[in-house]
């Protein structure tokens, strides 16, 4: 964009196209130094806008503390008069392009990629073929998830900087790490809290522009909240024995398998609110501690699985997990004893039971057990170990998951009772479930926002939109409000070994900035895949108009911005 170009709203699509084509050129793969490239693009873009040249204090990069890649949160604000403020947020990290194979060099060049995809059209799904032929979609990594939405927000903010005597305030936030641990958004909340204090802002609404997916192809979707996510970890300690003496040992694989079977896709761990349900849990990581093959059973197995929530608290989930582990333990002991009895019968030996008992503890109780035996010494060593792991994590030598189980193993050095045991807890990240449903008092313009926007889209574009209370794709909107903050913090402190050291959630700031949310994004398909694409008509034409209508409606209720 040249220096003094005016954005005429009718032509905002051209500006969006210009931004998205350049924004995606930044190879900002999640949790990599490439995210700095997207930061640069964001900042350079606003540096060229006359309003920000005159008001340099209204945009910038807000560093994420202790970050491996020294990443920042990017922000820009149209500061009008009066206090009501709308925040638009997008993430500029993208997932990797492994499945692009030979097309990798074209992942960030939509037009060239489209041509090549056309050549291999017959190998693609029928729906992709149709969309290719229609010419209605933009293909490429990040165009849909979600630099397309980001481009809409940036173009809109530029437009609003040109509105004279603007009443109200609009902030655009671009954040890294959404596809990883949301380090960007967790810092952005602190930034929002600082801006709130500095300028006396009243946060009315946060708008995200993640792509929407359609169940009914004729209807768009607005989301008025976002699912929560937590990740229980399970560590099963067995008792080692030679494979020829199985009854002298306790194979942790056996018990862990049962726990996996009882939790994977278990709808009892899923949440239902109205007609919406969170997808049931799935395991993301599972391995034993064996480094080399030998003929003994492994000593321990560790793993973690993801649970999505609509309304359940971490403590309620952990209670269920504990119960499942206990049930699995009892069943395995019974099976082992049955088998042992059969073996003793077959070998004409006197009958007796195996010595094992069911033991399931959470991480805080394992910690207590070590502390009770070794006291101060343990506590000091534990703190040292946390520091060591913090450094390893910061230097990217170890993953958070590896750090977590290394810490469990470390605590085990101070445990005297080495009989088989299940230890459970939580591994980062934790995404609170949020929904406008959980707000007691909302302005009418916000309570009815989905209905009002649907009236607008119906009238303007002949396009119907439905609403859902939870975006199930997991999003940064999770950090815009929190219910039962004290209880949640307690559960995290007890069960998440790295809470407050390697990982933190700014609970106090979240409570301070708490605001309702909406996701208004373009229709997109096949996120994270080779065929990721976004509907051009939404990207360039409809979605910016819908968001503008939302902003104008909310700020106009109090202020006349016409
Ligand atoms: Zn996304």
Explain how this protein is built.
- The chain has helices at residues 12-23, 35-47, 50-54, 110-119, 126-134, 147-161, 183-199, 252-263, 314-346, 363-394, 400-412, 444-447, 449-461, 485-495, 507-513, 536-558; strands at 59-63, 72-79, 81-91, 137-139, 167-175, 202-208, 219-223, 225-226, 228-237, 272-273, 276-277, 282-288, 300-309, 360-362, 421-431, 434-435, 464-468, 517-519, 524-525, 533-535.
- With 562 residues, the protein is an alpha/beta fold.
- The protein has 2 domains: 9-226 and 433-481 and 516-558, Zn peptidases (Aminopeptidase); 228-430, Alpha-Beta Plaits.
- The strands form 6 sheets. Strands 1-2-5-3-6-18 form a 6-stranded mixed beta sheet, with helices on both faces.
- The longest helix has 33 residues, at 314-346.
- The model has no long low-confidence stretch (mean pLDDT 95).
- Bound molecules: zinc ion (ZN).
- Zinc ion is lined by residues 91, 145-146, 178, 210.
- The site of zinc ion (ZN) has 5 residues, from loops.
